[in-house]
Design a protein that fits this description.
By secondary structure, the chain is α/β, with parallel strands linked by helices. The protein has 19 helices and 28 strands.
């Protein structure tokens, strides 16, 4: 087990409402919103507070009560923050959900989003005006009591004089887990947890001549890294955070680097795929005048970290002042309100190589200069602890759950009460042994909202079962994969990421769009390795024809595993979570069921049909009863 001392007692705000009050008094702080044409709009924290109080008054007039959940479906923009802080100011609980960005998957979107609205118990859905036009079928399935409205559709009312005086232990927001291996669960985070994470992160940034840390992010606001990791720390400091829409980054990755340079950002995080995308697609001519020397903390988290991607990114952008020390692998998860471990900020990221056979067969991390390369994810942040326990203690069975925790019901307003932190649920494994990763710290979730059994399976005496496999070595954490995603071949465990990352650079393969999975056919006694690969959009006929053989050779050369079958897919076919992570088990399930198909083509006729069905669904709701509000 490894642990970091708790930070000294802080004088930080106890709730997000108090944090907004304090930030509003800090001159110069706020949110800078950048669009895809690089036009900027600045909203000070004081302006955001004023707007939040106006929304809160109108929510109160509608009948939104303290502790009630309000689902938010907005793109990155001022509307999201008006709604988010307005809901908080009313004493209610925001539930950020992702907008329908994959129009070719609208049927799937309606189903999943309606399930999330119901799981969160949201009485109201607030949506961007353009987004709401597509939400009729979602609303018809979920039937929120107060309807699906835009901010303009709220009843007129006077602004509140002050934000609601909520307690630190009350529920601050509900955020859904990524759902890479199971359906997303509603993670209940208290004000205390959200503020604890913000304080810890802000205490970790390097001081730069006394200047408050500034950041840039393109990450979605319905994702923990975007909201809890970027916006909340800026709020706690009263600092400036520059935000770009995720779709703008995907279309033009150079916008991210240009914004970092233009605003001399100190901190900017991203998942591994973003660094690969920039390396492959940013052109020299897009970086005229760019200087990345201010970027001292380039966090890499939310998905498996590929060392070769970070090395390529560092080499590619060194001429624009990027410091190799900036690239920082990290580890965290929604249930911990984000970050748990950071690699050292003052040194280049480190990796080590380990014997594949020993890891696969015995779960032992034995050094091997020719073995699998794994990055160190560093040490726990202040106040956090990490323990690696035998896998029998994991969430799929094992030791009995503490009766007191399993029997504790959720409170109506703030989810489950926080469990006291005790010793780990089982004696930790020694260093270098692979097991289930458990974490403890000041920002753990209160529980899964309304799901006491799932909560009891994940939380024990203040410790969280992450569902990840890994080991400790030299006091630092290394991950080997998700427990439910592990590839099992001939009785040995393998990480799917090693096979998937091996395809980087294969001609005709779409970067970051591969899934490896094992499958035991009925009646056979040996598992098969299946590799699903999307073709690049610009792949030629020759590249597509050669793709199976090229992928098989790449996997064999890099991971020592030869796929039994390579399934080549059209772009966009692989199922993803709302935050863009690949869903391996769902990929295999759909393949076996004959349901793995590309998204429907998006054209004006199909969009018009979707809008017509949405209007019809809203009309049926109005006829059925008074639950639907006019926007």
């Amino acid at each position: 087990m490894i642990a970091a001392p708790a930070p000294a007692a802080a004088t930080a705000a106890a709730t997000l409402n108090q944090a907004l009050d304090r930030a509003a008094t800090v001159p110069g702080g706020g949110l800078r919103l950048v669009d895809r044409t690089e036009r900027e709009r600045f909203l000070s924290w004081a302006e955001l507070r004023r707007r939040a109080l106006a929304v809160a008054g109108r929510l109160a007039a509608l009948g939104v009560g303290r502790g009630e959940r309000v689902a938010l479906v907005f793109p990155t923009g001022e509307g999201f923050f008006d709604a988010f802080f307005g809901v908080l100011a009313a004493g209610a609980v925001p539930v950020p959900l992702y907008p329908p960005v994959r129009l070719g998957r609208l049927d799937e979107y309606h189903r999943r989003t309606a399930v999330q609205i119901a799981a969160a118990g949201a009485r109201l859905v607030l949506a961007d005006r353009r987004v709401r036009r597509l939400l009729g079928e979602t609303a018809a399935r979920a039937r929120p009591a107060l309807g699906c409205r835009t901010l303009d559709g709220l009843p007129p009312a006077a602004p509140l004089a002050e934000p609601a005086a909520v307690e630190a232990g009350e529920l601050a927001l509900v955020q859904f887990s990524s759902g890479t291996t199971v359906e997303p669960k509603p993670v209940a985070l208290s004000h205390r947890a959200a503020m604890a994470q913000a304080v810890v992160l802000n205490g970790f940034w390097p001081d730069r001549d006394g200047v408050r840390a500034s950041g840039v992010s393109w990450l979605p606001l319905y994702h923990d890294m975007g909201l809890l990791g970027c916006v909340f720390p800026a709020l706690e400091l009263g600092a400036v955070m520059t935000l770009l829409p995720p779709e703008a980054f995907i279309a033009r990755p150079a916008l991210w680097l240009r914004a970092i340079s233009r605003h001399r950002a100190l901190v900017s995080p991203a998942p591994n795929f973003a660094y690969a995308l920039c390396t492959a697609r940013v052109r020299d001519e897009e970086l005229g005048g760019v200087d990345l020397s201010s970027w001292r903390v380039a966090l890499n988290g939310a998905e498996a970290v590929a060392p070769r991607v970070l090395r390529a990114f560092a080499d590619r952008f060194a001429r624009w002042g990027l410091r190799p020390e900036a690239l920082t692998p990290v580890y965290g998860l929604s249930e911990a309100a984000l970050a748990v471990t950071f690699a050292d900020l003052e040194r280049p990221f480190s990796t080590a190589r380990f014997d594949r056979a020993a890891l696969a067969a015995a779960g032992a991390a034995r050094p091997d200069p020719e073995g699998i390369e794994l990055p160190s994810l560093g040490r726990p942040l202040p106040g956090f602890a990490v323990a690696v326990l035998p896998e029998a203690e994991g969430g799929d069975g094992g030791a009995a759950r503490p009766p007191a925790l399993a029997a504790t019901p959720p409170r109506p307003a703030d989810g489950l009460p926080a469990a006291p932190r005790g010793a780990p649920p089982a004696p930790p494994l020694p260093e270098g042994r692979v097991g289930r990763v458990w974490v403890a710290g000041p920002s753990l979730m209160a529980g899964y909202l309304g799901r006491p059994e799932a909560t009891a399976a994940a939380l024990r005496d203040g410790w969280l079962d992450t569902g990840d496999l890994g080991f400790l070595l030299g006091g630092e954490l290394y991950l080997t994969g998700r427990a439910k995603d592990v590839i099992i071949l001939r009785g040995r465990n393998h990480a799917p990421e090693e096979v998937e990352h091996a395809l980087a650079g294969v001609p005709g393969a779409r970067p970051g769009c591969a899934v490896a999975a094992s499958w035991l056919p009925e009646g056979e006694d040996a598992e098969r390795l299946l590799l699903f690969v999307e073709t690049a959009r610009d792949a030629g006929r020759t590249e597509r024809a050669a793709l199976p053989a090229a992928c098989r050779a790449a996997a064999l050369g890099a991971a020592g595993l030869e796929p039994d079958r390579v399934i080549v897919l059209a772009p966009g076919t692989l199922p993803r979570t709302s935050s863009g992570k690949l869903r391996r088990r769902e990929t295999l399930r759909r393949h076996l069921a004959g349901e793995l198909s590309p998204p429907a083509p998006v054209n004006p006729l199909r969009l018009a049909g979707a809008l017509a069905r949405s209007r019809l669904a809203f009309a049926r709701l109005r006829r059925a009863g008074p639950t639907e509000g006019e926007a």
